[in-house]
Amino acid sequence: xxxxxxxxxxxxxxxxxxxxxxxxxxxxxxxxxxxxxxxxxxxxxxxxxxxxxxxxxxxxxxxxxxxxxxxxxxxxxxxxxxxxxxxxxxxxxxxxxxxxxxxxxxxxxxxxxxxxxxxxxxxxxxxxxxxxxxxxxxxxxxxxxxxxxxxxxxxxxxxxxxxxxxxxxxxxxxxx
Amino acid sequence: xxxxxxxxxxxxxxxxxxxxxxxxxxxxxxxxxxxxxxxxxxxxxxxxxxxxxxxxxxxxxxxxxxxxxxxxxxxxxxxxxxxxxxxxxxxxxxxxxxxxxxxxxxxxxxxxxxxxxxxxxxxxxxxxxxxxxxxxxxxxxxxxxxxxxxxxxxxxxxxxxxxxxxxxxxxxxxxxxxxxxxxxxxxxxxxxxxxxxxxxxxxxxxxxxxxxxxxxxxxxxxxxxxxxxxxxxxxxxxxxxxxxxxxxxxxxxxxxxxxxxxxxxxxxxxxxxxxxxxxxxxxxxxxxxxxxxxxxxxxxxxxxxxxxxxxxxxxxxxxxxxxxxxxxxxxxxxxxxxxxxxxxxxxxxxxxxxxxxxxxxxxxxxxxxxxxxxxxxxxxxxxxxxxxxxxxxxxxxxxxxxxxxxxxxxxxxxxxxxxxxxxxxxxxxxxxxxxxxxxxxxxxxxxxxxxxxxxxxxxxxxxxxxxxxxxxxxxxxxxxxxxxxxxxxxxxxxxxxxxxxxxxxxxxxxxxxxxxxxxxxxxxxxxxxxxxxxxxxxxxxxxxxxxxxxxxxxxxxxxxxxxxxxxxxxxxxxxxxxxxxxxxxxxxxxx
Lengths: 176, 591
Known about the structure:
The structure holds two protein chains of two kinds. Chain A is α+β, with helices and mostly antiparallel strands.
């Protein structure tokens, strides 16, 4: 598999991987801390880890470094937060899943299918007028795919937000 | 052993060593109140839930032990949100038990239902919604552990009725008191710091040895860490002057040669100016609050900063420290003292600090705290009342205060000689704090004399708790400095709003404070002339079987000085007008 491209994300784009206790209310505690400071969460993905006592939250946030340091410290004060690492995008693997329903008349369907094949996506459902496709990949690749599909007319679209882990070949985490 | 959830909860509080609960029952918490009858824990029945919260805080301030409040769901719970926010801002250890509607009714807009864990998320160190009677002992242990360790704070435990109500099958439970290890294991994300990083302490010791103009900037964390003795040792060893913030009054004796008093917006000229001119600030359990720093960009511009705090989030929050040490203040100071002693033993010496000491004594001489005595026939000066009170009570008297001018004068004119003798609302600035907080302090320290200094505006917010004090025979004393105004607001309107007095007048005699006090079972005394001041204080000090309220009619024109106007640099400190003309305002006064 080809290496992920180094994403040309905007300045201030940070990925936090937050290990939390898997309990009700924890996500709201985490999200509220960002809201209180007026930081917009770009994307957020949550699911239990291999040990279902814990969940991992992957948060992408656009913020300068200094306020980020403060919010990481505040996050660390939450009793249910076990560990926080900031993932350096250059030293992590990141993935995102997108589902999209695209307008595709029989005449256009072939071109959409070709696009799905180029991006190594999947076709999930087809009708006479629409086609639902999925793509899993690095968020920048998903961005590109979304852009290409836009030409045909996107009826519905859902992205998961990114999930990330440190790359195996590097000590990619910066303990915070 | 079989018991119900309510019995389990009270038993858990007993096992935690709780000696008193401040509270008020209601529908959802009823089953927990039943076993209170059979418990050795004292319950103080308040008249409003806010009172329960501030009493728990006052108790905690005075004793260092966590205060406990218990209220019902819905309005009972929302009424205690202000004390929780207050305790959160001032790091006061407190556990609050709230009743909740039965689990099946949660989320249905049931009678007296509110999402109190949601509401208090931002104003508690942590909160819990207990969902099983079996969890009660562990959650109570977790709550006390969280409230009292690390940076202390309030913890709320919300208890649905069906897990404590003996008529509900869900309330049946056993008794299993968790061990320390189980508690620690149950909180995998909670690891409070203790000792500081040894390398950072060595660097701090170097900076302290090298400084020409050092100041110890002492905050409330010193008191929370029980570090007053360690601080005294550090100051005596190094000969470095100490400022004690509003939250730290009493942490260092005011009559010590090295004490400069309170810094900040209404701080002593010398405390403020010494910090401004310092080349090293050693911040100990302080958080660079805006009321201390003034305009941050202009604060202590030449100072390097050593910042010691148990909360990593305070390090670098406002001012980037040159040396940051996360740890318990007492342990860090002890290590710092050891590091400094090693340097002294090795013959390391400090620069000549005589010029600095002489600057400080020059400022102290020129700009002492002072006020103009009342002219013949004028109303009482509040500062004069406080001086008389200060000089008429035992050294270890506990002083509680509300929020506003009277609070600043109390902090300025009192002479604190012992830690834990000052109980006030610093961070949140909660008017109405003093009466219930004084009651809580007196419950915790019945051996001490407890005075509340209050303003007339503050008093009207929580005075009903004097009914509680009378009923429970808690003989606190209240000095109302009645200037007929919301005095601090009036001062700002006079100074910054062109004397346009908008909605600040309260009236000197509506209500009649003496009649009101007597109606609440207290002794009520009114003082209008200077000759009456001392006899009234003496009389109040002699009453020990009920609360006393002394109303002092004070001069509404009196303002708190010095003052650093909001948003201005501390260099722009204003001294009282009669002291001006000494080149004041340049911040260069002195030698």
